[in-house]
Design brief:
The protein is an alpha+beta fold and 227 residues long. The protein is built from five helices and ten strands, in the order H-H-E-E-E-E-E-H-E-E-H-E-E-E-H. The chain is 11% helix and 17% strand. 38% of the residues are buried.
């Protein structure tokens, strides 16, 4: 089958009217902007499993896996998945993560302390500061990023590994160990985000409430202005 050579562009879902929120950087130690390499390794060359992705993937899966996109926080149903099992690539079914490595990071994205052999780390000169991209080693699909901030999560497997694998749920399918239907992590294809209120933001991204101060505590002039 003919496969189109794809460059590693990293569009964000807010390009299609999603809320403008930052990429997983809130818990990263980096708070500066560093230019990424102009040319990155494509998602086809050297990866054995290739298909006509436009026909085999949903729109949300294609956006993440083949275009390197980022889903909004808390958009994937796998964020709250707590059953035992294996997380596989939604595109080619390669095993990627074990449920024993999953932990609650509070970021709004499925997070893991370690990955299986099917996870490839794509390092660059910005990796130490901004983390490294993660891909499926079989098909080259974009999964998310890995950060060296596991120490920020005491009491979790990440504190032991020192790593936080921050994954876009749309790239994953969960296979429960007890059997049953696989669970897709794609929360994008069936839902469009028209305004920030459509996405449940993590607490660290939520703006302060305007009406958080009781009216009786407001100055008399302010009460009169709001009547």
């Amino acid at each position: 089958m003919a496969v189109t050579n794809e460059l590693c562009c990293r569009p964000c879902w807010h390009d299609t009217a999603a809320p403008k929120i930052g990429r997983r950087a809130a818990l990263s130690i980096a708070a500066v902007t560093v230019p990424l390499p102009a040319i990155a390794k494509d998602r086809v060359s050297g990866y054995p499993k290739q298909y006509i992705w436009e026909q085999t993937l949903s729109s949300g899966q294609y956006f993440v896996l083949r275009q390197g996109g980022t889903e909004p926080p808390n958009s994937s149903p796998l964020v709250k998945e707590k059953r035992q099992g294996t997380y596989i690539c939604a595109a080619c079914s390669t095993p990627l993560f074990d449920s024993a490595a999953k932990f609650e990071s509070g970021t709004g994205w499925p997070s893991f302390a370690t990955g299986l052999t099917g996870v490839e780390v794509v390092s660059s000169f910005t990796s130490a500061l901004l983390g490294s991209e993660l891909r499926c080693a079989s098909c080259g699909g974009h999964l998310g990023d890995v950060f060296n901030d596991g120490y920020l999560f005491p009491g979790t497997p990440a504190a032991l590994s020192g790593k936080r694998y921050c994954i876009d749920g749309a790239a994953l399918t969960f296979l429960p160990i007890e059997g049953g239907e696989p669970a897709s992590g794609d929360g994008l294809s069936k839902r469009r985000y028209d305004r920030p209120a459509d996405v449940e933001l993590p607490s660290w991204l939520q703006p302060p409430k305007v009406d958080s101060v009781p009216r009786r505590a407001w100055p008399k002039s302010a009460v009169q202005l709001n009547m």
